[in-house]
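In this section we walk through a basic example: taking a raw amino acid sequence and producing a predicted 3D structure, encoded as discrete structure tokens. The instruction is simple. Fold the sequence below.
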Amino acid sequence: MTDSERPGRVVIVGGGIAGLAAAFFLRDRGAEVSVLEGSPRIGGKLAVSEVAGIAVDEGAEALLARRPEGVDLIGAVGLADQLEYPGTTTSRIWSRGRFRALPGRQFMGVPADLDEVERSGLLSPEGMARAREDGTLPATARDGDVSVAGYVGARFGAELVDRLVDPLLGGVYAGRCDRLSFSAALPGLAQAARLRPSLAEAAAALLGPAAGQEPARAAGGAPATPPGPVFTTLAAGLGTLPAALARASGAVVRTGAMVRELARTPDGWRLTVGSARAPELIDADAVVLALPARPASRLLAGAGPGSAGAAASALAEIDYASMAIVTLAYPAPAFSEPITGSGYLVPAVDGRPVKAVTFSTVKWPHLTGMPDAAAAALARSGERNREPGAGSALHVVRCSVGRIGEEAVLQRDDGDLAALAAADLAAATGVTGAPVASRVSRWGGGLPQYSVGHLDRVRRIRDNVASLPGLAVCGAAYDGVGIPACIASARLAADQLLAYLQSRAAVGRPA
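The resulting token sequence is shown next.
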């Protein structure tokens, strides 16, 4: 490709997974790409470091394997042979001081089988009776967007929302069902619910046939291929993906490069980078804002009135929750009972500081090979596991702390927060003694809240950005907080800018 045939120079503001994926998609089509990341490292909420000598993710630790965007990109950057799959995904709910089985036939907590919910003991007899009214109630009117609690509660009652739906959505968004948008947080279910009066039937339609029922059939009548694992990760942690993606993109990636201003020019865009004392001006044909909503809003607000200002106003409406991941390592004998399942969730109504727990070395069997540093940590603790197999000598546990509105608990220092998580874990599991190692990873303002009206907000943002030639947005604030959704938004942004740059090159002048 000659220089005259190249699409143009694109600057991506933000070096998280969305920004790096956009760089990869743009460079793959021949664009000259630079990534500017204001913090000291790339990766955003993907990071990995050692706890007791074991590499454990600090942020996201799994991606949906059944959405193709994540695994496809991992394959494209040469890491397909590093994919690992969970040994178990069975989870429980610690509710009212007891472990309860998480019903299997549920869609993000919305049950398809109420008999299974009753067997779990999650609901009181009164709550269970109310939940069964879903099957006899007339269709619930939905004029515009409503909250998850508003719609699901109208079908099943508030207790089921509090005890089953809220723990699952709280684990994804660190949010609350009375604020989250039904259409944005559960889009597939919201659509299915328009076709059936019973929400349990809508959930069942999405989940497919239950065990023992006739399986779905592919074209020609043959049984459909059973779905593969729901989740996957990388052997050395998902936190290793950003560096591999940056290398594969071929983009110029700069850290510590804070973009302070964005302005339209006759030929494209100008970015002001660095301090006010020594600003650096960078010109670009096109710009991708791969940023959280608030910093994206600030840059657009300074880019002028009209469409930029309107997009900035809509972005400013998106709230964010803060949370922390406390990772603890224990000698296996500290757990008097064998650990079963991949972890557990905790309803917000129970008032516990820890909202979710993952038993990492149970969920991900590849972590159980104990390196020398882990052995040293066990030796220092005075604990030894004398059972065969060194891999069972250490359990790594991730505790998620913080929901929206609970920022006060996160103001504790790292030692206090780790002790708080360890005490909560002990109350639930009976684990004894102190952990041999701990790590606190804080994600201040890390999770966008898809509150009621979110889809309309995103539409306003994108409509106004689309009227600004050579500008696109992507990231977790728009179509989903998971890694595949962020990658999908990055591809959309890259495709939009490539189409713009190619149309501009075709007429030989700025659009």
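Looking at the output, two observations stand out. Confidence is low (pLDDT under 50) at residues 215-226, 384-392. The domain at 3-45+241-318+450-507 is CATH 3.50.50.60 (FAD/NAD(P)-binding domain). In the next section we compare this with other chains.
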